[in-house]
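User: Can you help me understand a structure? I only have the sequence.
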Amino acid sequence: MSEELLINVSPMESRVAVLDNGVVSEVYIERHNKLGLVGNIYLGTVVRVLPGMQAAFVEIGQSRTAFLHVNDMRRLPRPTVIEDKTSAARHHNKQEPTVLTSIPVDRSEHIAENKSGESSSSESELANSSKVEVEPGSLREKKSALADETENLQSDLLDNSLLDNDSPDKVGNAITQVETPPTAAKERQIIEPPRHELIQYRLHEGQKILVQVTKDQLGTKGARLTTNISLPSRYLVYLPSSEHIGISQRIDNEEERHRLKTELSQLMQTVNLTGGLIARTAAERVPVAKLEEDIYYLVQLWRTIQARKEASAGSGKTAVLIYQELSLPLRSIRDLVHPDTEKVIVDHEGMYNEVRQFAKEFVPFIYPRILPYMGEQPLFDVHRVEEDLRDALKRRVDLKSGGYLIIDQTEAMTTIDVNTGSFVGGRSLEDTVYKTNLEATHAIARQLRLRNLGGIIILDFIDMLEQEHKDDVLESLQHQLSQDYAKTKITQVSELGLVEMTRKRTRESLEQQLCEPCKTCEGKGFIKTAETVCFEIFREIMRCARTYNSPKKFTVVAHASVIDLLLSSEADTVADLEYLLGRVITFEVENLYTQEQYDIVLD
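Assistant: Let's start by predicting it. Here is the structure, written out as tokens:
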């Protein structure tokens, strides 16, 4: 598969498009006035601890306080308890509760869901990184908003218990798993940690804490944090709070996995490095000298972060930015390119030079493939990226056969409905449905990546009778999702043709990023018909007539479509109402009103 990377930079925003065989598969957008937070490291201040939710709100200098769950905190060693024999006998049969905790280093969206599928913070130039300083007074102001954020916390925790169950063994991989519904339900259970790990015994209000952002602010929810810091380079991810050495599962050669693990262990001993390391996919067949360079770089980076933390601890500020992620174009070079990337095209001269300099130092193999764009037409127009972006905001996605998908996003989940449409080419109804569903799996996988749909996703395939067809459709879906670098899980096809799946989400979807709820319908997606509004007006007039005896005339102020209906098909009803009430009813058009808005003026 040939792949190209297009980088478009303007004074307002940076955009990156990934093309597979000339077809747009992913788009990343970063507004210069609204930079993403994922990968940033802050010295924050705890503003509230919630024992009942085993979570805390942390001030990091953003519009909303971020939240930290106990499962996203570094595990503490179990305290040593000396008991007498009587006490030991009394507790002999008791078992400690299981702790479901992991090191969430699969930051697949430091770029947006990072292409290599591994954890990715940043290799930013520390000398130039800025600090976010928040005056102590703002801490009190933001406490008033905590009540609103608390109600969002429980649903977010459920999402993350289902979606963020990464472990070091699975780090950096988009793993497509097929589960039966009971297994998926079992994973939703949240088990309380042992007493010594309860959040109320680990954090208190006003405490300074070093945290890293793992999820951007989504809608009304604040950013998600972890205390398990992860620092990536081109080939490795350094985990200061872990002792694990892991290998990306995308490296499937056992000899190569063994080589990497052995060499990383030896290098850690050589440089006396504490913590853990993950070999990213890009580390496959990389000589040990390159790995050693990465380790020295990461060690120096971590020492710099620690030094900045110590220097900021006594500053009196409630939030200080210690480490900032790279810009989107540089992140794309670090995380998206691989040996199969044929070329990188940049349409901005200054960014072109910056990207080449960065690639020369960190990703030298791509350096000669970085090209400037000199065409007269906009880069994204030439490659039809703009057209695909417009289509990605539509509910309907047409299939080549004549079938189509309907995609709807809600707060709780995304639903995708498959329909045959005009396709009637099968030998039988079952064959037509089967072919439509197979074609739909390709479109669904592409739309998930292009629109960056995450969380819980329900796929409503057309009902099939034969089990073999159901298995084929599920297998095709698995295969298509294997190309997705975001972590996904899917269930079996139900009797109703439904497939439940999850896709890891750390940033807003394309729709959330580019659009806002309709001010006319307030995000419902529909409005009352003009006829319904007319009947509401009639009822309101009758209500006013009973309440107020003095009015001699009613003036109805409404949208033109409603007034037109009142003066045409509902004219007889208006006349009857005037006769019944003994009052005159007049009408006035207000073009600034929506179809649902109206006023009744008493004269």
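Now, to help you interpret it: Confidence is low (pLDDT under 50) at residues 81-176, 180-188. Residues 393-514 form one domain. Let me know which part you'd like to focus on.
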